Amino acid sequence: MESQTRQDKIIEIKSVKEDDPIDQHSKQIQDLHFQLQQLKQEQEIQKSKAEAAAVQPPIVAVPENPAAPPGKPDKQAAAGASRLNTDIHAAPKQKQGKNAAKNAAKLAPKALEGPEKPAAPRVRGPQVSPDLGVSTNFDKLKLPEPKLKSKGYLLPMLYFDMGPNNLFRLFRQGVVTAYEMGRTVTVPVFHRHPRMGDAAEDPFVLPIFDTNYTVDLVWPPSETVDVGSLKKFMKVASMKEMKKECNGKLDAVIKCGTIDAKRYDGIKHFQRAADMKVLKEIEIASYEELVPNDLSEGIIAANEYKCLGIVYGKKCLPDQDRWLATFAKISKYFWRPLPIRKFAMSFIENVMENRKFMAVHWRYESDWLDMCKPSRPKGARERNREICRITMGLTYDDEVRNNFIQAIKDKLADYNLKTIFLASPPNNIDLIRLFNQSFPGNFFYFDDVEKYAFKTEGEQFMTNNYKTSFIEQEICFRSALYLGAPLSSWTQTVLTDRLSRNIKQHDSVLKVVGEGRPGFPELVFQFPEGNFNFGGMIPGKKV
């Protein structure tokens, strides 16, 4: 039956029209994903047989603690064993199931077929970082001061069908709007990542697609932002404080721009968690209707609607240069929670020994291949085509892996750096193993953070992904060079932190490892909420 299934899939690939390479590639990726799962299953069978025969896998000679350079004592010996160390430090398995390996070998070239796209000539040494389509010459803009002083509140409404990082993105936009309208910004209730399995102290059932997740709600504003610091610049309230002042009601909710139908469910779930009744809805086409460019009064008077909510939709776009310049003023007071910052700085000082380092955010793992399946819109498949190729290649193609690591080494050499911090989903085992073996003693990632937290802060410090993500973003923010992942809102958060403070040593990780070949989406500035075209990939489209 399985053999027949594989044959059906191969026949399906051959039947794709030759004049539609995007559809053809997406079906090939889907089939490769199927074969990769088979390959992994057969590898697990082989591993189980080896363990039963008491045959131990070979161990690569890398330091047990990458933070301790050769000849220096291990500073984290008491931090507890790494959850992933057994897998990460194991040498790549040489034995594979015959059928799965054979099928993967046959299909692998199809994912990379087509004419070889030439690499751009490599320029050595530090380069000017991409401008990302937004200006950081803040003084030139000469921003007006807000003219309104209001006794009202502004609550950014969150799409609860998104992950916490996207929710934080919407909150940050709300901070800018509240400042420009002279209102008190309310730190909304957040939820922790639904797919990370964190234990819930304040459980909330959140349906996403066809699955019900039980997530933990985050009410204290101090777990999301340094409230004390932000209060030095503007008025800030917790969600519970606003609910009390507003008698559990929102006088009006502004819907700005176009809101996708699928996002309405996210807003409904947020309203269910917030438990505030909406008395009126106001729809506007653009941000300028609410906040004119001269920061005068828009359609809402200063003290009209004391308790106001806002939903940011597509095309709710103020001028990006002005938005970033405005946030740059706020950023001097807008920081992650103080315990997060202190821990990140302590980790850099004591584990990474205050070495200057390059931070790499690699968002793409096996789950990203879903972006290339035939069920995805053609535009999404087009944007992700080359990403899916390199993601698959990191698993089965030695040439892709070798080129990937060499490109990273070259980038380090350009900036006279030796140390790397990798932020990547923890299930990205193959990539983490590859980095660990390629940069012994100079490579750090989530497990090192977790061990140090266990040693210095105790078991309760890193009990959820919400806090873990903040810590990794804070470490990346403090890097000498940051390689961000295009299309990722996590990368956008780090870039906004850096650009608003005029830290401009950054590049696209896809541009670096792709050696300048075309086809990868560009790294562009995507704040605030809206539509973005990615130039350099689709002919005729520019950022």
Strand order of the largest sheet: 6-2-1-11-8-10
Task: Estimate percent helicity.
Answer: 40-55%
Count of helical segments? Answer: 19
Structural class: alpha/beta
Largest sheet: 6 strands, parallel
Residue runs with pLDDT of under 50 for 5 or more positions:
1-19, 53-116, 531-543
Q: From the alpha-carbon coordinates, what is the Rg to the nearest angstrom? A: 25 Å
Mean pLDDT score: 78
The shape, in one word, is globular
Compact overview of the structure:
The protein has helices at about 1-15, 20-50, 85-90, 100-110, 140, 165-180, 225-230, 240-245, 260-275, 285-290, 320-330, 340-350, 380-395, 400-415, 430-440, 445-455, 465-475, 490-500, 510-515; strands spanning about 155, 185, 190, 205-210, 210-220, 235-240, 250, 250-255, 275-280, 280-285, 305-310, 355-360, 420-425, 445, 480-485, 505-510.
